[in-house]
Each structure stands twice: as structure tokens, then as C-alpha cells.
Automatic annotation (TrEMBL):
One annotated Gene Ontology cellular component of this protein: plasma membrane
Designated name of the protein: Energy-coupling factor transporter transmembrane protein EcfT
Keywords: Cell membrane, Membrane, Transmembrane, Transmembrane helix
Organism of provenance: [Eubacterium] siraeum
Subcellular location: Membrane
Primary subcellular site in the record, as a coarse category: membrane
Originating gene: ecfT
Top-rank taxon: Bacteria
Pfam families to which the protein is assigned, alphabetical: CbiQ
Transmembrane intervals: 30-58, 70-88, 108-128, 248-270
Topology of this chain in the membrane: Multi-pass membrane protein
């Protein structure tokens, strides 16, 4: 399961989505999140999801990768679904009543709606890292937050830390998988027993993982220092961020989709939340 986690990974490509300006990709991704939360019925929500699937097809990212990336997060999604199912009360008689457990039609509706929204949210946010290199992501975050420099906010350092943290997620996952395999080869039992026993069994995994993480961080700091890294002031870039016609087209398409979602919320009589 650890190998299925694709958060923070970059998949190189030459699609139109890959070639979009990274600053616009961040802004459009935020706009997509706002669009999902604006969707007030199933018609607008499904339309937003189909829109993202079309973008995935344009980017060349495999649909299998989407399902694999959702597998590790499914327990959280199911937990959210169950919470909404049991704790949302509606008007009228409950559909199911077993002791202290009561399920209303409104609870089922809210549970399904929120689950679909979370899935689309994860899929949409993952596309940003799938199609944007860590260097381009750092530059984009720094450019977008550049107005905060007037307030003496460490914009470059923040962008660098965020990108390095995102970049190291796949590395640490791979390291965790190696450590767990090594512990199992030595006879450690990590999969059976109660919750407390499983937590205790993770201690031999976490200690080497933290040691490895600090070692990698120290090596990265030394490598950056040897390359005379001095922060964002006076730093030159080999690849400049350029605004092009494709970015205008992407912005127009997102604006049209935004308008359609608003119109669907107003005029389409489909149940929602």
C-alpha cells in the first residue's frame, strides 16, 4: 500500500497541461477547489468531476494512477462518510433505527455528496504535483507570494520548505517500505495484534526513519551550501516562467466552467446538500 501513495510525485510529460505556467496552475487549482465547494447539487458536482477527468486525459496521466493514489486515503474517506451517515439528522421518520443508531435520508444524501466531493478534491489537487516539477512549483509559489516581501515575510524560504517537504514525501515512503521489509525479514510482526501492539511494533520502524530523514536533510543542506545557495536574493533561474496563449485559454475555460456551475446551482432542480 505504501508504494501506491503518489502524493508529491512528478510525472514528466509534454502535454498542454504540463506546459502551462505553474503560477496559473496553482491559481486554477485553487479555483477548482472553490468550484467544488460551490457545487450545491449532484449535477454541478458530477460536472466538475467530469471536467477534471477530461483534464487528466489531456495530461496523459493514467486513470490507474488515480485509483492507486486514492487507495491509501480510503479509510479517511470512509470514516468521513460514516460520520455524516450517523450524525446528520433530518426531518420525518428515520430510515433505520437500531438502538442508538439512527439513519435518515438526509444523512445518506450528505454522506454520499461529501464523499464524492472529497474524492474529486483529492484528484484535482494531486494533478498539480503530477504535472509540475518541484523547481517550477517553488518559483510559482515564490512569485505568487512576492507581495508579502514588503512585509519582510520570508517568501523564498517558505516556498523552498514547502517544495522540499512535498518532494521528500515519496522518498520517505520508499524508505519506510524498505525499513518495514527489513524488520519483517528479522521476524518482526507488524500486521497482527491489537491497536496498542501495532503501535509498539511501529517503534522499530519510526526510529530508523527519523534517523534517515535527519541524515538526508543534513546531506541536502550541505549540498546546497556547497553550491553557494544564499536564498532568493539575486538568484538567477535557468528556466523562466512565461505567460502564453495556452494560459489565457485555460483561464477562459475555467471561467466558463465556473459560470456553468453557478447556473446549474440556480436552475437545475437536482437534490444536493
Amino acid at each position: 500500500m505504501l508504494k501506491d501513495i503518489t502524493i508529491g510525485q512528478f510525472f514528466p510529460g509534454n502535454s498542454i497541461i504540463h506546459r502551462l505556467d505553474s503560477r496559473f496552475k496553482i491559481v486554477l487549482d485553487i479555483a477548482y477547489v472553490v468550484m467544488l465547494f460551490m457545487a450545491g447539487n449532484y449535477c454541478s458536482l458530477i460536472s466538475a468531476g467530469l471536467f477534471m477527468l477530461i483534464i487528466y486525459m489531456m495530461s496523459g496521466i493514467s486513470f490507474k494512477l488515480i485509483f492507486k493514489s486514492l487507495k491509501p486515503i480510503m479509510p479517511i474517506i470512509l470514516f468521513t462518510c460514516i460520520l455524516n451517515l450517523f450524525f446528520i439528522h433530518g426531518e420525518g421518520d428515520p430510515l433505520v433505527k437500531l438502538g442508538f443508531i439512527t439513519i435518515y435520508a438526509e444523512g445518506i444524501n450528505t454522506s454520499v455528496f461529501m464523499t464524492v466531493r472529497i474524492v474529486f478534491l483529492i484528484v484535482g489537487m494531486s494533478l498539480l504535483t503530477y504535472t509540475t516539477s518541484p523547481i517550477a512549483l517553488t518559483d510559482a509559489i515564490e512569485r505568487l507570494l512576492s507581495p508579502l516581501k514588503k512585509l519582510r515575510f520570508p517568501v523564498h524560504e517558505l516556498a523552498m520548505m514547502m517544495t522540499i517537504a512535498l518532494r521528500f514525501i515519496p522518498t520517505l515512503i520508499e524508505e519506510t517500505d524498505k525499513i518495514m521489509s527489513a524488520q519483517k525479514a528479522r521476524g518482526a510482526n507488524l500486521d497482527t495484534g491489537g491497536l496498542v501492539k501495532k503501535a509498539k511494533a511501529l517503534i522499530p520502524v519510526l526510529i530508523p526513519l527519523f534517523v534517515s530523514a535527519f541524515k538526508r536533510a543534513n546531506e541536502l543542506a550541505l549540498a546546497m551550501e556547497c553550491r553557494c545557495y544564499r536564498g532568493g536574493e539575486g538568484r538567477t533561474r535557468m528556466k523562466q516562467l512565461k505567460f502564453g496563449a495556452r494560459d489565457i485559454v485555460a483561464t477562459v475555460v475555467m471561467a466558463v466552467m465556473f459560470t456553468l456551475i453557478i447556473l446549474m446551482n440556480i436552475y437545475v432542480a437536482v437534490p444536493g446538500i
